[in-house]
């Protein structure tokens, strides 16, 4: 595996960790439920990736937005479930207060 293919995955994993820390740093009155908080990360990462692509003049193919419109809800729900159950379970194993 080359370094160029593992670098984006490392960024995503670090973003998940920082996003979890951010949730814990927020006051309880501003915290979203864990699953919703994690699902918002999908929208942020997608938006940042799109604007970085536009900045370096990497334009998506014409059918990209039709496919993205169909797959975005699947990714959103999938990320919601992963955060609600997997991250919630790992937080409870580590004794992190939620």
Report on the structure:
This protein is mostly helical and 98 residues long. It has one domain. The protein is built from three helices and no strands. 8% of the residues are buried. The mean pLDDT is 84.
Summarize the structure.
The protein has 98 residues and is an all-alpha fold.
Secondary structure topology:
Layout: H1 3-25, H2 34-55, H3 64-94
Helix pairs in contact: 1-2, 2-3
Radius of gyration: 16 Å
Number of domains: 1
User: What fraction, in percent, of the residue positions are helical?
Assistant: over 70%
Largest sheet: none
Contiguous runs where pLDDT drops below 50 for at least 5 residues: none
Number of strands: 0
Instruction: Identify the overall geometry.
Output: elongated
Measured by DSSP, the beta-strand proportion falls in: under 5%
* Average pLDDT metric: 84
End-to-end Cα distance: 36 Å
H/E element sequence: HHH
Q: Pairing-aware structural class of the strands and helices?
A: mainly alpha
Question: How many individual helices?
Answer: 3
């Amino acid at each position: 595996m080359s370094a160029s293919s593992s670098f984006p995955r490392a960024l995503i994993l670090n973003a998940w960790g920082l996003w979890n820390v951010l949730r814990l740093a927020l006051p309880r009155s501003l915290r979203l439920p864990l699953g919703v908080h994690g699902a918002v990360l999908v929208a942020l990462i997608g938006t940042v990736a799109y604007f970085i692509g536009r900045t370096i003049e990497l334009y998506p193919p014409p059918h990209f937005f039709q496919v993205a419109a169909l797959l975005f809800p699947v990714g959103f729900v999938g990320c919601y479930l992963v955060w609600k159950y997997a991250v919630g379970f790992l937080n409870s194993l580590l004794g992190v207060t939620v």
